[in-house]
Design goal:
Elements: E1 9-12, E2 34-38, E3 42-43, H1 49-66, E4 69-71, H2 93-98, E5 103-112, E6 115-124, E7 129-139, H3 143-159, E8 168-173, E9 180-185, E10 192-193, E11 201-206, E12 212-217, E13 224-229, E14 235-239, E15 245-250, E16 256-261, E17 268-273, E18 278-281, E19 289-294, E20 300-305, E21 312-317, E22 324-325, E23 333-338, E24 345-351, E25 354-360, E26 368-369, E27 377-382, E28 388-393, E29 400-405, E30 412-413, E31 421-426
Helix pairs in contact: 1-3
Length: 430
């Protein structure tokens, strides 16, 4: 398992002192975006154009997904794009202003054996100054992850909040002939299988530190809950009570798990510790209670119950009090996911035989439909910064994993071709 992980050294460049925040005005996705030029990085010694191209593609993809930038067409670039410019005095800002760019990404790389050194810079074209810069040292195959790290840094520089592009997405895929747990980058790269249960694996969820994943597996003939350390690959079955042990969700402090169990015949939500010991029962209803999702402060739960006839999303305090139906519209609402900032709950609704994704405030106001068109869109989960949602869809015929911005724009498929992919979960920052 260790081979799937990577380490590269990030060194703050020692160029001119950087401002805490950029003067470029950042705007919300969907509004007028910042014109940004992303140049192809230049070699400092032996050229390796495939390395530069891989970095450029990953960085451009991340920045485009953010919805904050309008990327300048590289075909329009002038001579400065072919000149090294790691400090502001070496950048011809006048050329970039002619193209309408307000910011430009420039950089250089050096490859020695398997070692890759990347120097990445973001310049403010209007202010004619360096906004941020990083040096990354790692392996050649780390180029994409260096790009994701610099995309996170660009968002941090311009918005004050780091991006989620260096995180991971866990999901279920059947390409092996069985539904197994996989892990991939946010853009679908570096996909790797985590389980070999040769059975049915479902519903992954990351621990708050991202070091562990819990999931349900039928490996032992029953839907049992497993916990797996991602770095070591060590795995343990932590709840194997008769009936369901499904839809486990780590509490935000990582010290407990909300879990659907049917040990007494009816599906209810319990709180267990990370070793599997039952601490308390969280729901009390004749109906079926499933799919818990914690509020960020760990004091409330959103969940699905059919206690009023059809599956609906409810919210309750963790002491069992203040139970209230969250969503009033629709006859079938499911798979709630509380946003990391606590301001929204995403869920899926079945109407006319098709699932689509919606968001709503925790007080039940402001319901908004995010997805449209053919095919089901379901199982939404939030990115660590709340800017994006990941979900599964069969809109192209086979089930696959997609990401979109929190306002529903910019949707794109990320899971690799070859299998059917479902049940995504977005990791915290690593």
């Amino acid at each position: 398992m260790r081979r799937i992980f990577w380490l590269f050294i990030l060194v703050l460049v020692t160029f001119p002192a950087l401002p805490a925040r950029a003067e470029i005005e950042i705007r919300a996705p969907g509004q007028q975006a910042i014109p940004l030029a992303v140049t192809l990085f230049l070699p400092l010694d032996q050229p390796r154009p495939e390395v530069a191209a891989e970095f450029n593609a990953a960085l451009s993809g991340d920045l485009d997904l953010s919805g904050l930038f309008a990327l300048t067409d590289p075909a329009a670039f002038l001579g400065d794009a072919r000149k090294l410019g790691l400090v502001s005095i070496d950048v011809d800002f006048g050329q970039w202003r002619l193209l309408g760019a307000e910011a430009v990404v420039k950089g250089a790389y050096s490859v020695r054996g398997e070692e890759l050194v990347l120097e990445a810079r973001l310049f403010d074209v209007v202010g004619r100054r360096l906004l941020t810069g990083r040096r990354y040292v790692g392996r050649v195959k780390d180029a994409r992850r260096m790009a994701h790290a610099f995309a996170d840094q660009i968002l941090a520089s311009l918005t004050g909040e780091e991006g989620p592009f260096s995180t991971r997405i866990a999901y279920i895929d059947n390409r092996s002939g069985h539904k197994e747990l996989y892990l991939m980058d946010v853009d679908g790269g570096n996909a790797v299988r985590l389980t070999d249960h040769r059975s049915l694996v479902l519903n992954p969820d990351f621990s708050p530190l991202g070091k562990e994943v819990i999931f349900t597996s039928y490996r032992g003939g029953n839907p049992d809950l497993y916990r797996k350390e991602i770095y070591s690959g060590q795995e343990a079955r932590i709840s194997s009570r008769q009936g369901l042990n499904a839809s486990g969700r780590f509490r935000p402090d990582g010290k407990a798990i909300a879990l659907t169990m049917s040990r007494d015949g009816n599906a209810e939500i319990y709180q267990i510790d990370t070793g599997g010991k039952i601490e308390k029962r969280l729901t009390q209803s004749w109906g079926i209670d499933v799919d818990p999702s914690w509020s960020p402060d760990g004091r409330s739960l959103a969940f699905v119950s059919d206690r009023q006839g059809n599956p609906q999303v409810f919210v309750a305090d963790v002491d069992g009090g203040n139970v209230r139906r969250l969503v009033r519209e629709g006859k079938y609402n499911a798979t709630p996911a509380w946003s990391p900032k606590g301001d929204l709950i995403a869920f899926s609704r079945l109407e006319k035989g098709v699932f689509d994704i919606y968001t709503i405030a925790p007080d039940g106001s402001g319901e908004r439909r995010l997805t449209f068109g053919a095919g089901n869109k379901e199982h939404p989960r939030w990115s660590a910064d709340g800017r994006f949602l990941v979900y599964s869809s069969d809109q192209d015929g086979k089930k696959a994993i997609y990401v979109m911005r929190a306002d529903g724009s910019g949707a794109r498929r990320i899971s690799p071709a070859g299998g059917e992919s479902t049940h995504p979960a977005w990791s915290p920052r690593w």
